[in-house]
Amino acid sequence: MTVLNVSDLEVYYETETGPAQAVDGVSFSIEEGENLGIVGESGCGKTTLAKAIIGILPDAGYINNGSIEFKGEDLTELSEKQRRRYKWEEISMIAQSAMNALDPVYTIREQIVEAIETHRPGTGRVEANEIVQEMFELVGLDQKRADEYPHQFSGGMRQRAMIAMALALEPSLVLADEPTTALDVIMQDQILKRIGQIQKEINSSMMVITHDVSVVAETCDRVVVMYAGQIAEEGPVEEIFGKPYHPYTMGLKRAFPNIRESDQNLLSISGYPPELIDPPSGCRFAERCPLATEKCREIEPEAHYNNGLRSYCHYADAIDDGFRARADDPATWADTEAARAIRTMKEGTMMEGND
Ligand SMILES: Nc1ncnc2c1ncn2[C@@H]1O[C@H](COP(=O)(O)OP(=O)(O)OP(=O)(O)O)[C@@H](O)[C@H]1O
After folding, report:
1. Are residues 153 and 183 in the same domain?
2. For 188-242, how does the pLDDT look when each residue is reduced to its tens digit (9 = 90+)?
3. What DSSP line would sit under 43-83, residue for residue?
4. Is residue 25 part of a domain?
5. I need a labelling partner for 282 at 20 to 30 A (CA). Which of 95, 106, 180, 343 fits?
6. CA–CA separation, 223 and 293 (whole Å)
7. Whether residue 198 is found in the same domain as residue 246
8. Domain with 130 in it: what CATH number?
9. Is residue 242 part of a domain?
10. 40 is a domain residue
11. Is the minimum distance from the CB of 23 to ligand 1 under 6 angstroms?
12. Cβ neighbours of residue 263 under 8 Å, at least 6 residues apart?
């Protein structure tokens, strides 16, 4: 069964200089029990996507187009009141920062019990407390500390408490936004394993948002690679990281440190994602791409399908292992428009310095 079906979603933010297209024409689905990873550099629209799905966009943000079908019901058509019943009970979110997500004036127990009583009005106090105990055990927290306030917890414990809260109502879909970024490597590993175990027990689906490709490799079945508000590539984890067809995926998997490997030979994708207020007309990655041609700068790429992957690159069908090997070489990434522009700028600064 399809739990979530996002179709042609556009989310804008009103800014002083005009509307910024944070999510632009994004379509994907998540099946029951499936884990989908969303990866991409900072600012590519991952958190906005999650906030639109659970219905907590800030005032400046709005859905401009598209649908978000949850178990067949389009959430974008519902009123604020109707949507509330989905929040936490059916769709929950493990936010980036547990400190911001937890209420400082209530104990952890009070917050979890409150959530249970709001969404399951028939649940008695004793039963709610049993759920707190069970969730604390599952996330590896000492339940004696349930009556403490968030500030009395360490960062790792707060993150675990947040996970306990997000999973207490056994939601069908959990949106995990950088669930372990604030934690050290050992803790990250434990927490990821823990989330996986709990999730299997309650058979929920999960959308894992991260910039760390090793987290996705470890926890997800499929992955969506986002770039500048759009999907660059989508498909099963093994294929995406084994034989990708989009140059951005190739760069991304070598450009960011990951929690698995200590000795990493990282490469750099020169430049930055484009402004989302006035994005370029062709492929948004063209300026930073070693394969880019005039066509890429002018025409927006359509989806190409290879080996179960959906890749938005004009040259996806021509990409082979030869190119994948070249993309592993940092020198390949020194030959892009962005890299050349940065070199020219540096040379200019040096010349000025010599004058
Ligand atoms: N409240 C806001 N008002 C205006 N623009 C915003 C707002 N929140 C986010 N944006 C912009 O929307 C774009 C997408 O941001 P978003 O936080 O969704 O990206 P992200 O991929 O989750 O990044 P990160 O990993 O840093 O959280 C960015 O350009 C960001 O500047």
Report:
1. yes
2. 777 778 788 878 888 899 999 988 888 888 889 999 999 999 999 999 999 999 9
3. TSSHHHHHHHHHT---TTEEEEEEEEEETTEEGGGS-HHHH
4. yes
5. 343
6. 27
7. no
8. 3.40.50.300
9. yes
10. yes
11. no
12. none
Nearest residue (by CA) to ligand 1, atom 24, is: 42
Among residues 204, 224, 244, the one where a domain terminates is: 224
Q: Is the CB of 16 under 6 A from ligand 1?
A: no
Domain that holds residue 59: 2-224
Give the number of C-alpha atoms closer than 13 A to the C-alpha of residue 346, restricted to the C-beta side.
6
Q: What token pair was written down for 290?
A: 């070693």
- Give the C-alpha separation, 263 to 200, whole Å: 32
pLDDT in tens, 75-127: 999 988 888 888 878 999 988 776 677 889 999 999 999 888 888 888 888 99
Query: Do both 158 and 243 map to the same domain?
Result: no
Same-domain status, 150 and 248: no
Same domain assignment for residues 191 and 252: no
Mutate to test the pocket of ligand 1, among 10, 13, 14, 49 (most ligand atoms within 8 A of CB): 13
Question: What pTM does this model have?
Answer: 0.90
Rg over alpha carbons for the chain, rounded to the nearest Å, is: 22
Domain tally, the chain: 2
Q: State which of 192, 224, 256 marks the end of a domain.
A: 224
45 lines ligand 1 (CB under 6 A): yes
Residue 65 lies in a domain: yes
- 179/183 Cα distance (integer angstroms): 9
What type of residue is 184? D
Sign for the CA dihedral angle at 146, 151, 157, 160 comes to positive
Distance CA 112, CA 160 (A): 13
ipTM: 0.97
Ligand 1 neighbour 47 (Cβ under 6 A)? yes
